[in-house]
Fold:
Amino acid sequence: MPDGDGQSGNEIEIEAVGKVFGQGDTAFHALSGIDLTIRTGEFFTLLGPSGCGKTTLLRVIAGFEHPTSGRLRIKGQDVVGQAPNQRLVNTVFQNYALFPHMTVAQNIGFGLKMLGRPRAEIAATTDEMMHLVKMEAMAARKPSELSGGQQQRVALARALAPRPRVLLLDEPLSALDLKLRKEMQTELKRLQVETGITFVFVTHDQEEALTMSDRLAVMNQGRILQLGSPHEIYHAPTERFVADFIGETNFLTLNVIAVQGRGADLALPGGRTIAARVAEGLTPAVGTTVSAVIRPEQARIVPQGTGELSATVEGAVFFGTDTHIHLRLSDGQPFTVRRQNNDDLADPAKGETVGLSLTPGALQVLRG
Amino acid sequence: MKRDSHRWKWILVSPALLVLILAASGPLLIVAVYSFLSPGNMGGVAWDFSTDAWFRVFFKRDIFEPENVTLNADHLAVFQRTIWLSLQTTVICAALGFPTAWFIATRPANRRMIWLFLITVPFWTNLLIRTFAIQEMIRNTGTLNTALLWLGVIGEPIEMMYTDFAVLLGMSYVFLPLMVLPLYAAMDKLDFRLVEAGYDLYASRFQVLRHVILPLVKPGFIAGSILVFIPSIGAYVTPRVLGGGRSMMMGNLIGLQFGQGRNWPLGSALAMVLLVIVVVALVFYLRITTRETGGRDGQS
Structure:
């Protein structure tokens, strides 16, 4: 457990942080104007495609990279210019970076040894950590004698052993196979809850981000596009990139008929009107065309003539738990409906015309 | 098909085997045989079995009282100096080679080749010439002393020629690349993320060096030390030119027996002693350097 000072405070405050590699024409802006506050004890995820700057941001927090501009505070203390070994932050590296010449126990005890802790304390904490990650039986093994999943556990234990304020995880699960990854997701979440340490997790896997995080930031091209809970990010994306990157989405181009507060009325193909939510900071003008999104599971196929929309069936793909039904709206826009296979429903026949009922309030108007 | 390729392998490897047998084992065998023969009148050997050469490697008989046998202090002093100078050369090369190799290994990939290439430049010039160049620098009226005298740093020349220092300087200079190259090879393979992991886990620069970098480049140190120590033990040109008769090493002592001394059996016996020193040193060295990593199968 971390020290009792302020369980609910801010752990990391990032203000206008920028990072530029190179100079002049070849300069690469890895991070631009990052503003971010990570709360104490939360599981925070940086999500984005490769090259989006998420790993650079993690390295800035760890102290391996120094920001070109902006400020960074850990627990209220300005750490810009502080070396990694001065920050109470530990990293689980993407390739684990376990010391190959040390045993599992020596790897786990390394941080405490470097901090000059007494031998007995190092031994006790190492045992405790090995128990925590269920690696007691492997204490005398070398990393080369471990499987990928076991190496992952040792890397975790090694980073947790010095009891850092913050644990940084750089795509730690990307090298594991699917089944092991699922297991480790649960395991990580359990460790985070048990230890109460703030986790900052970097991943490009949107499912991982949604299932594990308390909050997440979606990044692209060195910027944070949207910050929020998994629920907010999934159901109320504000930008096309976010909506597209996370989950499957139906994009619709629709006309604005009326604007009222945080909502807008949009004209659907076929003449009906629907109320939609509008992304924060956006005020669409009446008469303009906007981009709106709705998730495939937020639409239901209903008998022809009912529902808000009319569509033609183009095909169905069976996924086991659910079926994706590909449709074309009356004005030619594609639309996908995800139907859970609760009952043994027959797939609609290709070419059949059906009605579509949209979940009220599910349609969201995007920025840009 | 498979058997064919196996036969081909032997055919392909046979020239190398032939060279090894003819050029390495053959002469070694001859030297071993010579050491048990008597010296010929004009050099060479007489085919009479004798252990006299081996006796004289270690012992000395008083000319007037042949029963009075003492240890051959001159020979033992040369053995001792040879081992001591070679050890010092190895340590100096390691101390200078590590930062050099580190510097090269941390350059951008496209520039490393240039630095490595520069390391090999001294090999382009004959060893003898380079050794004389060092002599020119350190002799009493040489570059270094002249400059220091002119600057008024010293009142009279520092005597450096024909000292152990001169030999050490020469050997360290000559063998340094043999330490740098294997060290570089080991550092090139070093995963620098491990260095980051060390810093991340609160290690200071010195601790990262000691606990992460040094253990991981140890194979480079082992290879480099062997490559420096073995030729140092057998060095001939450098101690001859820079050490003269005052700072003689085993190579010179052996050379002396085959030349002026006209005692081929003694020279052969000394050469066998040199061989034994190298083998013992190697075994001992490999023992102590691989002890920690050696017990892998014993654990867990």
